[in-house]
Each structure stands twice: as C-alpha cells, then as structure tokens.
Amino acid sequence: MKGLINWEALQKYQKLPFANMDEAAQAKQWGSFAGMYDGMAKLEKEFTKKQVGQMLLSAEDSVIDIGCGPGRLSVPVAQKVKSVTALDVSEAMLAKCMENARREGVHNITPMRANWLAEDAVETVGKYDIAIASRSVGFADLVKINRIARKYVFILGWANAPSLREIQLDFLEGIGQEKVPHDPDARMFGYNMMFNMVYDMGANPNIVVVEDGFERDYVSREQAYADLRFVGEIRPEFEEQYRSNVDRYLIPQPDGGFKLLRKTKTFVLWWRPDEVSA
Q: Which of 164, 212, 239, 265 could bond 159 through an S-S bridge, CB–CB 3.0 to 4.6 Å?
C-alpha cells in the first residue's frame, strides 16, 4: 500500500548505531557497552514494568526480543509468557541478559546470538507469537519484523525525550565525553514515521506514550557516586567534575537520603501482522 508520503525514505535519515559495520565489529562494539547498558537498565527497572504493562501478552505466547541487550524487557516479559527468545549480536549482552534472568528466578529465556541485519535473519530466527524491538536494530525494517510475528509486533523507543545515551553522557559532561547535542529534528523524525509506515503497510497501529525514567534511592551522596560509575571511565583528575554532574540529579529526601530521578518518555507502538498487506 502506497501512502501520500514516502515515510520509509524519510526514515533513512535516521542512523542506526554501528549498522554499517560487519557482524564481528558490531558484536565487539555493542559488547563494549554491555556493563553500561546493564547499569542503566537496572535504574529503569520499575519504569520498564509500566512499558510491559502496555503489551498484550498471554501465558501461552512465544516471544522474541530483537536486540535484547541485558534483558531489560526480556526478563519482565518472560514472567508473563510461555517463552522468550533473547536475540542479540553480542555475546556480552546475552551473558548479562541470562545473568539478570537467573537473578530474577526466570528460566524460560533462550539466548540466540544472531545478526538481525543479516539477509537470512528471518529464516534463522523463525516465527513467534510476539515480536518485540525496543531501541534496537529491529527498527530498521518494519516489514521484516512483521514477517516473524503471528499475533502482535511491539516497537518501543524514546518519545521525543532524553534517551539513555543522553542521560549517560550528562553524568560524564566535562570529563572527556562529548555531550549529545539537542537534535532540532527529533520530533520531525520521531515515532510519527513508524506509525505512518505501519499504517501504509495496511495495518491499524496503536500507540501509547508512557511517562518513565531512571531512578534509585541512596542513603548518601557517596553511595550514589560509587553506584553510578558504570556510566564510563572517570579518571582521578575528573572526580570532582563527575561528582558535580551526579549532584545535579540527586534530590534530598526527608530521611536524609537522596533520590536519583531522571524523567523521560517511551512510546509503545503495536499492530497485528495479519493486517499487513505489504
């Protein structure tokens, strides 16, 4: 089905991180971020449950999480369904995912190391009741992800709000890391493109924007400084700057402790693959 606007062509202006690398290079690059992504996912844990709460899941569903990372979604989704296949190109990410599954007492996740960008990915991956792509390479081709789902496809991403990467680099501002500049086109090239692409594919997409963020309670500033070091390397000469960066986001509490709270927003977009005519 052809729409009035070629949304697919417009989407090409958005760059997928590391997509132009070969598989080995992608795996190495994503693997280098595994510890940081895992730390950030733990800060999102309670908010992630709100995102999962928007998904139409049943106890009999088989699910694939494309670009699962450290299992931010795979683990809570697995607690609601029959089985989850956690797909990632990085062994390091998959190791974090399975570590987090064991910690939560989840035993129905199967790791799959595969490159979703490969030409034979659909044949390699197979079919599932539910296909999920959250902030991942699953965004690259909505027709492709539609081909592996029987009941629903769920796409999750930042809703014109601070992203994980932006928040991470805020903690490293002034200590050798470049701050992510504000993108004036962020809203223009937001979830509206994916919504319209799905519509033009013939489906009737649904979307909800969830208020979420990153949070943790600390008994002291020192505990916060120690806990958040997963964000990146902090050399001794930048310690004072790092602490100042963290202080900006610590809210004093009545009990003498502190709350870290960085608010953001996530869109959850979903559709039924049997409606797609493309």
A: 265
Q: What is the pTM of this model?
A: 0.91
Distance (Å, whole) CA 117 – CA 221: 43
> 278 pLDDT exceeds 60?
no
* Helix, strand, coil percentages in the chain from 3-state DSSP, rounded to 5: 40, 25, 35
Half-sphere exposure of 175 (CA within 13 A, CB side): 23
Return the closest-CA partner of residue 183 out of 158, 212, 208. Answer: 158
Answer yes or no: are the C-beta atoms of 209 and 157 closer than 8 Å. Answer: no
Give pLDDT tens digits for 3-58. 666 656 666 656 666 567 777 888 888 888 899 999 999 999 999 999 999 999 99
Q: Which residues contact 123 (CB under 8 A, 6 or more apart)?
A: none
Burial label for 120, CB within 10 Å (0-12, 13-18, 19+), is exposed
Burial of 204: CB neighbours in 10 Å, binned 0-12, 13-18, 19+ = exposed
Nearest to 84 by CA among 107, 114, 118, 115: 107
For 7-160+184-211+264-273, CATH number? 3.40.50.150
Residue 250, H or E segment: strand 250-252
Q: Are 109 and 77 in contact (CB under 8 A)?
A: no
pLDDT digits (tens, 9 = 90+) for 172-192: 999 876 665 656 566 766 888
Question: Residue 40's CB: how many other CB atoms inside 10 A?
Answer: 22
